[in-house]
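INPUT
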Amino acid sequence: MRILVACEESQAVTKELRKLRHDAYSNDIVECSGGHPEWHIQKGTLEILNDGWDMIIAFPPCTYLSNAGACRLYPTKGNIDEERYKKGLKGKEFFMAILNADCPKIAVENPVSSLAFEMPKCTQEIQPYHFGHPFSKKTRLWLKGLPELKYTNVVEKEGTFLPSSTSKNAYTGLNDKKTRDPKEASKTFLGIAKAMANQWGGYEEIAKDMYYKYKELCPVKYSFMWGQCSNEYKEAWIAEARIFCLLT
Ligand SMILES: C[S@@+](CC[C@H](N)C(=O)[O-])C[C@H]1O[C@@H](n2cnc3c(N)ncnc32)[C@H](O)[C@@H]1O
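OUTPUT
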């Protein structure tokens, strides 16, 4: 699949998708830090959003939308910081443009946002400790044409990932520099990146696409049909998908 991983400078998800032989590209306004500039499109996401991608996974900025910044949005009780609110609305516009892009499979990730921005209802909430990292950092996913992520490795939570004024048990084992540097702290956890790539770009998803193409049916309108196939039938398509990936 041709996949756009928008607002991703770390290339965490892009590299996992490349391992599965997808034609995946990270995209960010800044240079990539993941070591593969040949897979990086350094441009604003909106410039390339509707370029015929088969799947878009996006991590749009949350600085002004996030609930963690609520105390700055309301510097005094009942009074909203108008400048900050306008910036938040711009952030929401960007987020919605990605969520409403012309693409059959879309996943947008963001933390819990301030109620002031009336964000659409998310599909799922996940935590790093569901994917092998012993921290909490509640993350929301808005999904279109993609299944909810299944937890891959649920581990004991040792504390919150990001220090916060309300949390007394912020994780202390992590390199402090990492949690204080917003760029470092916003990089996608490896366990989550692997789950996204394997579950949304793995052989079963490719098999599903091949099945719907073969049946000449719309995968969104007839999404129930794959679910109704027997396991043996699905396995046969998954084997086809593996061969297809080996040959292309
Ligand atoms: C919350 S961080 C996500 C980082 C991501 N999880 C990763 O592992 O690289 C948001 C990213 O969006 C990028 N960004 C901001 N505005 C953008 C735009 N208009 N187009 C593309 N990327 C943008 C920022 O540079 C930042 O790297």
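end of record. Residues 7-10, 12, 27-30, 44-45, 59, 61-62, 186-188 surround S-adenosylmethionine (CB under 6 Å).
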